[in-house]
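Reopening this ticket.

The earlier resolution said the output was attached, but the attachment link was broken on my side. Pasting everything inline this time so it's all in one place.
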Amino acid sequence: MAHHASLGRVGIWASALRTDDAARRPQAEEAAAELDELGYGTLWIGGSPSPDMAQRVLAATSRATVGTSILNIWEHAAPEVAARHAQLTDEYGGRFLLGLGVSHAETRSGHALDHPLAGRPRSAMRSYLDMLDNAPRPVPAAGRALAALGPKMLQLAAERSLGALPYLVTVEHTAEARDILGADPLLAPELKVVLQRPGADPAAAYATARDYLSRYLALANYRNSLLRLGFAESDFDGGGSDRLVDALFAIGDAAAVRAKVDAFLSAGADHVALQVVTAATGTDLPREEWRALAEALPLRD
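Inline output:
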């Protein structure tokens, strides 16, 4: 299995690194710089980020790979993305990884609703990749990765990109994805973490997890993915059953998170992107938690 050493074994996934709010930009850039110093291999910008947002994180760091997780193909024209990719590659020495995705039917708007490929996500992604390939400065397969859950999109990720960036998945999905991808393509699943202090009430941690998970359980592609993994519709009630939350989150102290990360790596992941979940996940920069995890986790081989 390829290790894709430039990404490291563990990265951080955070929507708050988007830096589209000018008032919050200095704090986000300062946090990115600290994550770089802590040794995280990759910083994943969540929440459908643009290449411009990636540029700001790249400028704030000197070592880490910076990835979009994920750039929404309906919102960004492929020729413009290819041109921006070339600029960022030249300026930052290949530290930019273009993560691409087709988003969700429930959240699409504008031209994405009446696009001829709107109902055919794999065909839409294949067409987008063709345009990236045909740009004046093509985006090489090694410079891009795909958000992928099901077998067909995983196969496309293996054929046309560095590999796959699955979101909201389990250890079992990781093992199945590795079988589909084969040995060499990148497999970098995201894993949600609720880090608990000693003596904290576990019920509060589960409530935080369910509050965040509930928004994803409203999206059909995630529900379908979880049903394929053997969960039932009843597991989606009330923000998620205990077994669903336990499968999708690492809840506990840093040692418990380490054990869950190790399970993903043993199942075939090359890299695990950790998203620390709090009461305000989309805007929090949980630097104390990031520091604690950096001490406990295998950031590099």
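Reporter confirms the inline version is readable. The two ends are 13 Å apart (CA to CA). The longest strand covers residues 96-101.
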